[in-house]
User: Fold this.
Amino acid sequence: MDAGSWISPYVGELTQEWESAGHSVQIAHLPDQALPADFCFCLSFSRILPAAVRQQYKHTLVVHESDLPDGRGWAPMTWQILEGKNLIPVTLIEAVDAVDAGQIYLQEWIELDGTELNPEWRLLQARATQKLCMQWLQAYPSIVKKARQQTGPGSSYPRRRAEDSKLDPSRTLAEQFDLLRVVDNQNYPAFFEIRGRRYQISITAEDRTDK
Assistant:
């Protein structure tokens, strides 16, 4: 995973669970830090792991939040929330040279109600990721025979940049609420520009009153 990634605390939980089951786990943030092992799980990792590194493992796995081959690329969960989707698949695949093009092993679906802010849907994403990784490891080696190839031309999402968190002050908050749902108040906060100045906005949710 990338250093400082949002998923780091959840990877720590997964590591503890695997170690409790008798597995030895190492965490790396760069390809040249990766040591030989049985399996490699690439979680929230923003680059392609070179074939020379993947050859150190029996399998190299990637978790990607889209119904592949649609939605390959970067920040798929964010893009789908911006598209207004509330049912988002999380897919565990084999890593290959092409981005998110490997065979599919498992899928888990996240159901949103349309109100979740970044920390809330990230938690759901993390739990689905942990579940898929545990399922794959527990089902190995029989799960390898159940893999299926991706079919169809597919589609890809571009990288998101800090500028993608820009609000339009001429539009309503309701119209831009999904953008507010995906921003990160620390790393890529929402902002707008008006009268020659730039203003930053943070968003938090109050406790639900209907539960």
Observations:
- The chain has a mean pLDDT of 95.
- The helical segments are 8-20, 51-54, 76-82, 118-139, 177-182.
